[in-house]
Structure formats: structure tokens, C-alpha cells
Design goal:
By secondary structure, the chain is an alpha/beta fold. The chain is 59% helix and 11% strand. Helix 12 runs antiparallel to helix 13 and helix 12 packs parallel to helix 14. The radius of gyration is 26 Å and the shape is globular.
């Protein structure tokens, strides 16, 4: 799915273009809108944008100035300038920019839609070219990848020692053709491929290779990276920006948006769901080991079952505490996380029973018991939140309230019952899980119709790749997400108009429309009547 952002300071133009494109190809195009350059940059900071349709002359920030900022964040983004001015200087500047089109507003909606369609075709053609280039690299990279993997598996095991000698690292990097700089900080990304049961080793190996090649086809132009298999069979990448491209926070934002494209390509061309856990900040090479361990813990804590996700570690490793977790309860909680994530119910329950016995019968009863309880409760709470489950009694707050239990023994029994419910849910078939997730999305939509609900917002809230959520919703409900939102808004608008107490202009914001005229146009298009005509018809 591609993302189109419409930008114009004239509200009527922005809303009209938004409505046209919103209805045009909802299965392929997710449409956003902004009324200023500043608001457009806010969208850019939240999600990847593929096409921007913008006016050139706007107060505060012109379209040309906006384009420079877009280039810094999303180099692949295509720009279409739409203006009422046939000013030669503006047109000339626009034509000089790569991947930019120039249109006059007088050319009409049909011409604008035609150009957007051409741009989408160009993007798709470029992606296919990436696939051809990807296939030609397979043989050359195989042996090199094995050697690099062995080196970095050792490095990740003890970066505090191996990361200190920069000259030795530089020599190793040259020998192994690792295109990174040991003197600059590095960003980590951990990828997990969701395999169906019974997948053979050779198939997994080929899948890993294909995922890496897709990664390279999207990343190589703007990022230097190396990808290897870690000791757990997950893909680990180490990244640095190229000198002329995004760095720092911009690199993280660029990475998040590009990973979404990589997820889509893996799903479409390989049939593989790939999730990523990434560093929120670059770290020193000496700190790679603790940063990697943080990503693994975050992955274990929040990864869903075969759902493409992008998780970000928000802790700066340079400021994180490196103290040891030298207590037994903390270690056991980490083991329980791994068993819960992997679906190993027997091992989880056995470890939980042992930990319960240990803390309940220990000398320092209350201190150890409270620490152990909250360590486990946080693991279960995070998993419940990720799966979208209420806790069994509908009192999720009780999970994080030790004082709410009659006794310590009863509190640990409650943990066990909660874990059993989670494992019961994990045993549900995929159809049941999908239905549960989509039901929660629908419930949220119906309860927040007065807000500007977008695909990007819903994806952020439920930790989904936006394109995957769109596809999942269509698969489950049979209509596009945008259509469902419109149906809910129409239904709620009819209910409010039927009550008769509110004026039409007061109904508009309650169903997500700031301007009454936009609401009227939307309502008439859906029902054939204006809101007032609909209300008058009810009275007759």
C-alpha cells in the first residue's frame, strides 16, 4: 500500500482532493491531508509518505521549502506540485528537482488522478527492478555472509572487549568486506521471520537470504548495513548512515518507514511475515552486547504471533544503567518471558511453580515475593496488552495491584490463571485471532468517531504495519477500513439527526468533520440527501 499526502492551505481544495483520492483506490492508496507545510512535516515525522501532492505557494512554508525537508526524511518520496500560478520561476525550480511533477489546478481532477496513477506505476516499476538486481547478488554473497556472521556472533557475545580495539576492528572489517566504520556509533535492528510449523532448515535458510536481499535493495542507497544470523536464528543488522544521508533521529525515522516497505515486499513476494525490533538511538560498538540484549528482551515481550510489527527501544544505551540483574527472581522472569513468547506452556508453568515456591518459602518473604510478583505481572500485562485481551475477570488493574489480593499465595494463583488464559488464546486458530484483533479495532473506531481516525493512527495504536492492518481488515470484514469508518460515521450521523436536538453544524464535529460544509457533502454523497433534507424527511 502507498501513502499519499495532500497539502494545501486552502481547506476546500485539500478536502476535495482528499475525498476524491480517499474513494479512488482504497486497497492501494492510504490518503492523508495537511493544511500547511508544518502540519505536513508532522505527518512525515510519524510515518513514511510515498507521494506528496502539494501547492507551491503557501504561507509560512512554501511547497519548494517543504520538498527540501521531505528529501531529508524520505528520499524515495515523489512530489507533485499543484498550483494556481503559472509562474515560470516556480515551474522552473520544480522541474529541476528529481522525481517531481508540476501541474496547474486548472487542469482538473482527472489530470491530477492520471499523474498520481503514473507515479504509482513508476514506483512499482522501480520495486520490480530492485527484485531483478536482488537475484543477481545471491551467489556472490553466500560465502561472505557466513564469514561475517561468525565474526559478529562472537562480537555480540562480548562487545565490551572486542569493541575497544578500533584498529583491529578496522582490519577485520576490511578483510571481511564489512562496509561500516568502527569509529562511528551503530544502530541495531533485529528481525524475526514468522514460519509455519514444520518448515525445513533449507527453506528457512533460503528465506533468510531472500529477506536480506530485499533489505539490501531498499537500504543500500541511503544506509550502510550488515546483516547476519544471530545464535537464536534471528536476523541482526548493524547500520550507519551514509555521509550524505539521514543521521541520528532522522536515521531512526527513515529506518522505521523503510522497514514498512520491506515488510510489504517480504509478504507480497515471499509470503513471509517479518517483524523488526530496532534501537531508538545509535550506540558505541562497545555497547552492542547490552543493546542487543535489550532488543531481544523487547522482542520477547511484545512480538505477536506471525503479525508484522516494528518495535522501537526508546532507551538511549549511553544513559542506560549497566548494573547486573544479579537476583534470582529477575533471571527467572526473563526465562518466563521467553517461554511465554514461544508458547511453551509446560515449561512456563513449571518455572512459575518453582519461582513461587522459592519466593513464598524464602527467608525474606515479603521483599522477594513482591519483587517476583511484579516481575511476572509486568510480563503478563505486556502480553495481554499486545494480544488485545482483557484479563479474565475484567479487572486488569488487579494484575498490577498486589494489595488487591487476599494473600501472597492467592496473588501467585492469580498469575497462573492469567497465564493459562494467555496460552488458551495462543492456541486459538489464526482465524479466531484475526477476528479478535479486528473486533477491537472496530470497537475503537465506533467509540472515537469524533476524531480524525486514520489508518496510520490505528496502526500506531495496535502496533501494526499500516499496510498489513489494511489488508487484514479487508480480509476479515470484506470491505476496506476507510469504507467501514465512513459507514460508522453515516450511521452515527443519522442517529444524531434523528434525535433532533442538535443543529447540523453541531453534528459535524461529533462524526469527525470540523467543517459543516464538508460533512454536508460527505452525507449527501452517501445518502443522496443533505443532513437537513434527511432530518426533514424523518419529520414527514
Amino acid at each position: 500500500m502507498y501513502r499519499l499526502l495532500v497539502v494545501d492551505d486552502e481547506e476546500i481544495i485539500t478536502n476535495s482532493l482528499y475525498e476524491v483520492f480517499h474513494q479512488w483506490m482504497p486497497e492501494k492508496l492510504d490518503v492523508c491531508r495537511a493544511y500547511s507545510g508544518k502540519e505536513a512535516l508532522n505527518w512525515m515525522s510519524r510515518t513514511r509518505i510515498d507521494i506528496v501532492l502539494t501547492d507551491i505557494r503557501m504561507p509560512g512554508m512554501s511547497g519548494l521549502e517543504l520538498t527540501e525537508s521531505i528529501r531529508a526524511l524520505w528520499p524515495r518520496c515523489r512530489i507533485i506540485f499543484l498550483t494556481g500560478y503559472s509562474d515560470f520561476d516556480y515551474a522552473y525550480q520544480a522541474i529541476q528537482m528529481p522525481n517531481v511533477r508540476y501541474l496547474l489546478k486548472t487542469e482538473g481532477f482527472d489530470k491530477v488522478m492520471e499523474v498520481v496513477k503514473e507515479v504509482i506505476h513508476e514506483i512499482e516499476s522501480g520495486n520490480r527492478m530492485n527484485e531483478w538486481l536482488m537475484q543477481s547478488r545471491v551467489q556472490i554473497e553466500a560465502l561472505e555472509w557466513m564469514e561475517q556472521g561468525e565474526y559478529f556472533r562472537q562480537f555480540v557475545a562480548d562487545s565490551s572487549l572486542l569493541g575497544q580495539d578500533k584498529e583491529a576492528m578496522l582490519s577485520d572489517f576490511r578483510t571481511l568486506n564489512i562496509g561500516l566504520d568502527p569509529k562511528l556509533p551503530v544502530l541495531l535492528a533485529l528481525g524475526r521471520v514468522a514460519y509455519s510449523a514444520g518448515k525445513a532448515y533449507a527453506e528457512k535458510k533460503n528465506s533468510h537470504r531472500s529477506v536480506r536481499l530485499i533489505w539490501n535493495s531498499f537500504m543500500d542507497e541511503h544506509v550502510r548495513s550488515i546483516g547476519v544470523l544471530d545464535k537464536h536464528g534471528d536476523l541482526l543488522w548493524m547500520l550507519q548512515p551514509r555521509p550524505e544521508n539521514p543521521s541520528g533521529d532522522r536515521l531512526v525515522l527513515y529506518l522505521e518507514g523503510t522497514l514498512e516497505l520491506i515488510q510489504e515486499a517480504c509478504l507480497d513476494s515471499l509470503g513471509l511475515a517479518v517483524s523488526f525490533t530496532i534501537s531508538g538511538f545509535p550506540c558505541r560498538w562497545e555497547d552492542v552486547t547490552p543493546q542487543y540484549e535489550r532488543l531481544r528482551r523487547l522482542q520477547q515481550l511484545k512480538m505477536g504471533d506471525g503479525i508484522p510489527m516494528i518495535l522501537k527501544d526508546q532507551v538511549d544505551s549511553s544513559q542506560a544503567s549497566h548494573c547486573k540483574e544479579g537476583v534470582e527472581t529477575s533471571h527467572k522472569a526473563g526465562v518466563l518471558e521467553a517461554h511465554l513468547e514461544a508458547g511453551r506452556e509446560g515449561e512456563f508453568m513449571s518455572e512459575l511453580e518453582q519461582l513461587s515456591e522459592f519466593v513464598l518459602n524464602g527467608d525474606d518473604h515479603h521483599q522477594h515475593a513482591a519483587q517476583a510478583y511484579y516481575s511476572i505481572a509486568l510480563v503478563l500485562y505486556a502480553k495481554l496488552t499486545r494480544l488485545g485481551l482483557q484479563d479474565p475477570t475484567g479487572e486488569r488493574g488487579k494484575l498490577l495491584d498486589l494489595e488487591g489480593h487476599d494473600s501472597m499465595k492467592e496473588a501467585f494463583r492469580y498469575l497462573r490463571r492469567t497465564a493459562e488464559d494467555i496460552f488458551d488464546f495462543k492456541r486459538m486458530d489464526e482465524r479466531g485471532k484475526t477476528a479478535h484483533v479486528i473486533d477491537r479495532v472496530c470497537q475503537y473506531i465506533e467509540e472515537h468517531l469524533d476524531q480524525d481516525i486514520t489508518l496510520v493512527h490505528l496502526a500506531e495504536r495496535y502496533f501494526f504495519n499500516p499496510s498489513y492492518l489494511s489488508r487484514l481488515f479487508k480480509q476479515e470484514r470484506g470491505i476496506n477500513l476507510s469504507e467501514y469508518i465512513e459507514k460508522c460515521r453515516i450511521r452515527r450521523a443519522k442517529e444524531l439527526l434523528k434525535e433532533g436536538d442538535l443543529k447540523v453544524r453541531d453534528v459535524a464535529p461529533l462524526v469527525g468533520y470540523d467543517a459543516a460544509h464538508s460533512f454536508t457533502r460527505f452525507f449527501k454523497k452517501a445518502t443522496g440527501l443533505t443532513p437537513q433534507e434527511y432530518r426533514d424527511h424523518l419529520v414527514k
